From TrEMBL:
GO MF annotations in UniProt: ATP binding; single-stranded DNA binding
Signal peptide: none
AAA+ ATPase domain ranges (all copies): 123-465
Entry function: The RecF protein is involved in DNA metabolism; it is required for DNA replication and normal SOS inducibility. RecF binds preferentially to single-stranded, linear DNA. It also seems to bind ATP.
DNA repair recorded as keyword: yes
Binding residues for ATP: G131, E132, N133, G134, A135, G136, K137, T138
Keywords for this protein: ATP-binding, Cytoplasm, DNA damage, DNA repair, DNA replication, DNA-binding, Nucleotide-binding, SOS response
Stored InterPro entries: AAA+_ATPase (IPR003593), DNA-binding_RecF (IPR001238), DNA-binding_RecF_CS (IPR018078), P-loop_NTPase (IPR027417), RecF/RecN/SMC_N (IPR003395), RecF_2 (IPR042174)
Nucleotide-binding among keywords: yes
Family the entry assigns: Belongs to the RecF family.
Identification of the protein by name: DNA replication and repair protein RecF
Pfam families, alphabetized: SMC_N
Native organism: Sinorhizobium fredii (strain NBRC 101917 / NGR234)
Annotated GO biological process: DNA replication; DNA synthesis involved in DNA repair; double-strand break repair; SOS response
Length: 470
């Protein structure tokens, strides 16, 4: 299939117009579905009467508003949807079919892992980093992953990230052609002690939170550490899923940490001799709102990803069938308000059991992401190592495509040791798929020859001992 000669089809003007219209309608439906999902706090009556998406979207004021291209937007996700559209019930306008390219043009590291000091000028092409084991390739990818919220692709403690022997912490500086125009991003810590938090400056001005990074770029990655995703603990898959959601909905992280905080308060309260029932109910109500929002955002992401995977089936990588289990499994299609009431009842009924267990046994923290190899109709964990890797690559590429479609801006992709386990044909197909996403990708490997098929589409850098050269 991969190697088949494909004849370039010739389309008439009318056919091209039809295709463009078709693409517009798909993107429109995605935007509407996503926005609709985020209206989770709308009461059931409102949800029922707002089944037509546009009105439900405008109910997003319940969640706060965003402002894109000078136009007020409703809905939790609206700020991240970029200037490609405005509220569906007023006026819908999509950007070009190819997402806008976001790229790093400069990268400077100070005391970052094995880099004492590094300064790199980049053009907008993909970047291939090759070098021996331990040279610092993944470290460089990790530095770029700090241009997104969170603790980076290794989820490391900041104290470990600072170069051994450095006393002033680490810093990462990048000049980026971003989603909102050129931006200079500086992030790092001030010292190398445990428990440090990461600071962020945008164009020299301190940012309130690292979440502000998502206004400028989205960074997605695939690393060898993720190879065990299908066979490892469910917490790994939940984290993976939540990162997928986060890349479209930056609010998801805040909801997850607030849910976590509320759950810990409930667990603490339940461990007391006679917990105050009114206090417990208040906490449980908060958990119900946040927990259902999290579950719906995850479900919506899976729905969008599934639709995209179905449309692009039959490519060089197998496609994944995705579903969620473990929390409110039988509630598909119920209004958010009803789901909250149901979760609230579960929490209230489960107080005795949870007090005995010392933890909350129901909630979005118990969900598992179930992944199937669609073509083989088999659970991912039962597939071969190579099949699992191909499935994961397909999933990450589909997600990158979705982020590009939804935001109008292609994400920056970090693909660590991506080419190692693929044969020549698959590698070439992978590079084409990555290139078609329209963004900038950073790829690593030990052997430059593995990237030959990329040709002039990438610049090639050699990494050795914490230094980078052409
Ligand atoms: N905080 C630190 N300070 C100094 N050196 C560090 C620090 N953390 C990791 N290193 C060093 O960085 C090197 C690892 O770099 P990295 O993981 O980027 O290698 P790599 O080029 O990706 O190698 P491989 O091909 O084996 O994956 C190791 O030699 C490690 O000891």
């Amino acid at each position: 299939m991969l190697f088949e000669e494909i004849e370039e089809p010739v389309f008439t003007g009318e056919e091209l117009a039809k295709q463009a219209e078709h693409q517009r309608s798909i993107r429109l439906s995605i935007v509407m579905r996503l926005s609709y999902c985020t209206c989770k706090r709308v009461k059931s009556s409102q949800v029922a009467e707002n089944r037509g998406f546009p009105t439900a979207v405008s109910a997003g004021s319940v969640l706060g508003t965003g402002n894109v291209a000078g136009l007020p937007l409703g809905g939790g996700l609206s700020p991240c949807l970029g200037p490609a559209f405005v509220l569906p019930d007023r006026h819908v306008e999509f950007g070009p079919a190819m997402p806008h390219k976001v790229s790093l043009t400069r990268l400077k590291l100070t005391d970052f892992r094995n880099y004492a000091a590094l300064s790199l000028e980049l053009d907008q092409r993909h970047v291939v980093l090759t070098g021996e084991n331990g040279a610092g390739k993944t470290n460089l990818m990790e530095a770029i992953s700090f241009l997104s919220p969170g603790r980076g692709l290794r989820r490391a403690a900041y104290a470990d990230v600072a170069r051994v022997g450095a006393t002033d912490g680490f810093s990462v500086f990048a000049a980026v052609e971003g989603m909102d125009g050129p931006v200079e991003i500086g992030t790092g810590t001030a010292g190398a002690e445990e428990g440090q938090s990461r600071r962020l400056r945008l164009n020299g001005t301190p940012a309130r939170t690292v979440d502000e990074l998502t206004d400028h770029l989205r960074v997605l990655w695939l690393t060898p550490a993720m190879d065990g995703l299908f066979t490892g603990p469910s917490s790994d898959r939940r984290r993976f899923l939540d990162r997928l959601v986060l890349s479209l909905d930056p609010e998801h992280g805040r909801r997850a940490s607030e849910f976590d905080r509320a759950m810990r308060s409930r667990n603490r309260l339940l461990s007391e001799f006679r917990p105050d029932p009114a206090w417990l109910t208040a906490i449980e109500r908060e958990m119900a709102g946040l927990g259902v929002s999290m579950a719906l955002a995850r479900l919506e992401m899976l729905g969008l990803l599934t639709a995209l995977v179905e449309r692009s089936q039959g490519g060089s990588f197998p496609s994944a069938g995705l579903s969620l289990a473990g929390f409110l499994d039988d509630c598909h299609g119920l209004p958010a308000y009803d789901l909250e009431e149901r979760y609230l009842a579960m929490l209230s009924d489960g107080r005795g059991r949870d007090a005995a267990a010392g933890r909350t046994l129901d909630g979005p923290h118990r969900s598992d992401l179930l992944i199937r190899h669609r073509e083989k109709d088999m659970e991912a964990e039962r597939c071969s190592t190579g099949e699992q890797k191909a499935l994961l690559v397909g999933l990450v590429l589909a997600h990158a495509r979705l982020v590009g479609d939804m935001t109008g801006h292609a994400p920056v992709l970090l693909l660590d040791e991506i080419a190692a386990h693929l044969d020549q044909g698959r590698r070439a197909a992978l590079f084409d798929r990555v290139d078609e996403l329209g963004g900038q990708a950073f790829m690593t490997g030990t052997d430059r020859a593995m990237f030959t098929a990329l040709g002039e589409r990438a610049c090639y850098l050699t990494v050795a001992n914490g230094r980078v050269s052409e």
